[in-house]
Design goal:
This protein is α/β, with parallel strands linked by helices. The chain contains 8 helices and 4 strands, in the order αβαβαβαβαααα. It is globular. The structure holds zinc ion (ZN).
Length: about 240
């Protein structure tokens, strides 16, 4: 099977990937409390698996997936045990240096795939920062905001009505699908720090949402690689 994980490649394989104009995905997760029933790796696990599956689904050009960023911006979850957070500036600096390192090796197309709501605004702002200060083109997406994923979430949910929430009707089935051995459905009830209804989680909902997210990411990667999806931040900088 072809290799898509950055950490498994050797030096000549990176050189080959650069020549083939590979797209590099940086999964950005979190380590934070997810109620009493889900593990703290929930967000990291989602974005890392979606990235890997999308990378494996594309044959026309290489897609590489970095090891996921496992700690991010989660100060609002520190009231509950298990959460590890960076402060705002450390998180911004971490993303800057990771993206700049990838870019320094010749990769021109980088995509942050985010799995944690608290990171979304930072990632959006990071794109402009990286373009302006480093001349690095980075696309940034939160997986549940990608085209057609939001529609699928609305379709499969009853109580949470398509809203991602936190450890509720969407994240619970995602983990029942991806890592059921780490879910305690006996504890799947609302407690402080949970947003939404975990009790309605069933595996099939999770499978449908993951499939929608993988498909959306595959389409986005193809558009990014072909130039159809243009990075206007870099374009503006070039004409200034
Ligand atoms: Zn989460």
């Amino acid at each position: 099977m072809k290799k898509v994980l950055w950490q498994e490649l050797r030096r000549p394989e990176f050189e080959k990937a650069v020549k083939a104009d590979a797209v590099v995905i940086v999964p950005v997760g979190s380590t934070e409390q997810h109620g009493n029933h889900l593990p703290v790796n929930t967000d990291t696990n989602c974005c890392f698996i979606i990235a890997q599956r999308a990378a494996l689904a594309i044959d026309e050009f290489p897609v590489l997936v970095l090891p996921p960023i496992w700690t991010a911006y989660s100060p609002h979850h520190m009231a509950y045990p298990g959460t590890i957070t960076l402060n705002y500036h450390t998180f911004v600096e971490l993303l800057t240096q990771v993206a700049a390192s990838v870019h320094a090796h010749g990769f021109k197309k980088i995509l942050f795939l985010n799995g944690h709501g608290g990171n979304s605004a930072v990632i959006t702002a990071m794109r402009a920062k990286l373009a302006d200060e480093e001349g690095v083109s980075v696309m940034g997406y939160t997986y549940w905001d990608m085209p057609s994923v939001a529609e699928e979430m609305k379709t499969v949910t009853q109580s949470d009505k398509g809203f991602i929430g936190h450890s509720g009707e969407i994240e619970t089935p995602l983990q029942l699908y991806l890592q059921p051995e780490l879910v305690d459905m006996d504890a799947a009830v609302w407690v402080p720090g949970v947003w939404g209804d975990p009790s309605t989680g069933v595996r099939e909902k999770g499978e449908r949402i993951i499939n929608a997210a993988v498909n959306a990411l595959v389409n986005t990667l193809r558009d990014y690689h072909s130039g159809k999806l243009e990075d206007s931040l870099i374009w503006r900088k070039e004409i200034l």
